[in-house]
Amino acid sequence: MRPLEDVRIIAIEQYGAGPFGSVHLADLGADVLKIEEPKSGGDVGRYVPPYNTGEDSLFFEAFNRNKRSLSLDLGTPGGRRVFEDLVRTSDAVYSNLRGDVPAKMKITYDDLKHLNPAIVCCSLTGFGMTGPRAKQPGYDYILQGLAGWMDLTGDPDGPPTKSGLSLVDFSGGFVAALSLLAGLHAARRDGVGGDCDVSLYDTAVSMLTYPAAWHLNAGYRPGRTKNSAHPSLVPFQAFEAADGWFVVGCAKEKFWVRLAEAIGLAELLDDPRFTDFAARGQHKDELLPLLEKRFAEASVEHWVGLLTTAGVPTGPINDVEQALTEEHTLARGLIATTEHEVWGEVRQVTSPVRFGAEQPEYRRAPHRNENFDEVMSLLGYSAEDIRGLVDDGAFGALAQQAPS
């Protein structure tokens, strides 16, 4: 069995952060059942351009492989009945909504514990379920600004800069998945579930890590650094070669020694200005031009090859195409392929979460309400039960066409 094959998760999720968190659980074997609101057309991620047609988008595929889908209107009595029956047979309710919405929708532990005392209710919200911003919507870009990330990112002479990826969303998804698994462990040990109040804001602030510790304890004020340099270790940054950029990371004194010797500047090792991290940091404006001049003399391939052989941490600054075709990317099995009726062969990156030697299996993301029959069978509903729920609008208009 795959690690989470005995876990069922009801996922009231959409777009990026929530689905990103649960896709790793689905890859590990969890039965992740997406609840999609029928009136709005389900998960908005289905319609994200530019690579979209109808309800199928490559954006949606990237976040929802290995999941199932059920259209369900929780605002109807019938829809609520189906949801509660699912809670009785599931391990967790997972959502990414605004902080005040889980309580309004009655999907918190206090709302559901009478149905299943061991249910784990994981709510990933923008700002959490408490605090002055709880009712505000939270998006990655806004959170990168609020949490200080953008103030740290970019060129010293340029504007505050957002990361090229939605790292708050993705980090929040990982934190939500970790919290949910911790809750599942406790629930199976104690027989009692509970709430996981996870937020993008908490995630972003917590990831300030050592700059936060420096500031809180010593008044340190972080600033942007030229060429993405490390704030305290020198040299540890991007350098421009004759034909592109690469990174050198001297995180230990031994790497500085190897670097100087490998690039033919061994005389710098005897210079009192550069003897250790503290000295090199103090005299970086004298050291870095010497390194920049040397690195401009040859290609990225030359320097990366030379320094790798010398045992100095280094690597080219790849574009996305180069990263996806790296020999190590392919060797680590980081590209998966699924078959799709619209897109044909869909290739995408896989989850980095691993356990054991067995390789995950991958299937395409579900069409909206694709798993209607399976879920009805799981719940043991009769044909008469289903007709009554359809008439009540529990599944929205789409269910009229669902197989029965």
List keywords for this structure.
6-stranded parallel β-sheet, single chain, 13 strands, alpha/beta, Rossmann fold, 404 residues, disordered C terminus, formyl-coa transferase, domain 3
Helix percent reads: 25-40%
Q: Helix- and strand-based class?
A: alpha/beta
Q: What is the correct CATH architecture of the largest domain?
A: 3-Layer(aba) Sandwich
According to DSSP, the number of beta strands is: 13
Order of adjacent strands in the largest pleated sheet: 5-2-1-6-7-8
Total helix count?
A: 18
CATH class of the largest domain: Alpha Beta
Total tally of structural domains = 2
Name the beta content range: 15-25%
Which stretches of 5+ consecutive residues score pLDDT under 50?
Answer: 399-404
* CA-CA gap between termini: 30 Å
Radius of gyration: 26 Å
> What characterizes the major β-sheet?
6 strands, parallel
Shape annotation: elongated
Mean pLDDT: 95
Would you identify the CATH H-level superfamily of the largest domain?
Crotonobetainyl-coa:carnitine coa-transferase, domain 1
In CATH, the topology of the largest domain is named Rossmann fold
GO molecular function: CoA-transferase activity
Pfam family, one: CoA_transf_3
Organism: Gordonia lacunae
Protein name: CoA transferase
